Amino acid sequence: xxxxxxxxxxxxxxxxxxxxxxxxxxxxxxxxxxxxxxxxxxxxxxxxxxxxxxxxxxxxxxxxxxxxxxxxxxxxxxxxxxxxxxxxxxxxxxxxxxxxxxxxxxxxxxxxxxxxxxxxxxxxxxxxxxxxxxxxxxxxxxxxxxxxxxxxxxxxxxxxxxxxxxxxxxxxxxxxxxxxxxxxxxxxxxxxxxxxxxxxxxxxxxxxxxxxxxxxxxxxxxxxxxxxxxxxxxxxxxxxxxxxxxxxxxxxxxxxxxxxxxxxxxxxxxxxxxxxxxxxxxxxxxxxxxxxxxxxxxxxxxxxxxxxxxxxxxxxxxxxxxxxxxxxxxxxxxxxxxxxxxxxxxxxxxxxxxxxxxxxxxxxxxxxxxxxxxxxxxxxxxxxxxxxxxxxxxxxxxxxxxxxxxxxxxxxxxxxxxxxxxxxxxxxxxxxxxxxxxxxxxxxxxxxxxxxxxxxxxxxxxxxxxxxxxxxxxxxxxxxxxxxxxxxxxxxxxxxxxxxxxxxxxxxxxxxxxxxxxxxxx
Length: 522
Fold this sequence. Notes:
Helices cover about 50% and strands about 15% of the residues. By secondary structure, the protein is of the alpha/beta class. The strands form 5 sheets. The chain has a 6-stranded antiparallel beta sheet, with helices on both faces. A 5-stranded parallel beta sheet has the order 14-15-13-16-17, sandwiched between helices. It has a two-stranded antiparallel sheet with strand order 4-5.
């Protein structure tokens, strides 16, 4: 029997509720087809069968290859989602010629058995409903960072990226009705030039163990919310080479997906939380590669979306529009916005951290500035959780000097990598302000300092209302700060006594007037 005939029988079996022991009146089984698999949703379970197909990037043409792919999918995905992936189940034919799921006889096909989840809770659908908030973005970054920490190391990788860029070029050129040839050529040339420039950095990251077998397909459609927590699933199993790469390249798929959907705030939160979770100085240097990584990911989505256009009708038009959007994004990301170092100072309660978070998504290259906060740096230095209160001994002059030096060095590394940084600290001392300005000069980037002002009553009210924050400042500390001698302030002073929205408008105006175009919205 031909493979197509056998799979047709298998699919007919799995579409029948009786195959799962269900009563005749049970609801119909739901079938979902992709280019490489058919998934059957039956009650509390889902069964995923590899389709008998062969593409340039995968080969499921024989039963043996499909069985191996099912087994590989289980091994690869159980670390990400142990609560979803259960086992590989045979579909067998008995002596009478009847097929049965997990039945007696000779296996003719295999399925990955999963726990069924709410399909409307995948993050792409949540994004369409405007339901990805910043708390979810923060949780998502923690999940990805934890998965990356456990990912197995792999061999050197830049040659593979060069081939991906070449493949993108070849396949984009196959849709001249969507992608102008000259623009495709320009994107490819810019991508290869960036890769050549970044080759020493990427090689060093590989030697440092930051090239690993990752997820490989980390977009919003492959993440689902279960019991309020994001769960990653459907990692690439059919080709370890496709799933292997720099960890920031793996993360870039998720960041690009959020940016493409104009969820800039969520994308910025994901990046900053990821950097806080990894605490790797090498990732600050690695930000130099982020424009290339984001662009390549967008180009991949452009060509894949173009290839999936239907024969005609509204779906074909929609797919073509989406493909062009991805391509335009790829071209924009490879030529990132200018970067800058912004320092936000002010006494406790002036709203420095809230302002930094609000400004970051629109400052510098996508997905916005890296936010460096002295309060978090101090907690990191002492090895405690962000919200754990430190003793007075952690606030001596010597410790504070080390905190500001560490933050300045990180800001230097971020901006030297071509990314933007926003530093959030009190900056009450002229020497502290000089230190951060020197970091900008060391990276040869524009520097802009903002100093927030608010009456002590406003500041005391704000710090008293804080919950679960990295700052240890309380009302008593806030009042004592009134005696600080700030010295000569050559930063732009911003009235922060009103609402956050008012402070953001004033800060944007100050930044734009001092450096036109450097920090405006992308």
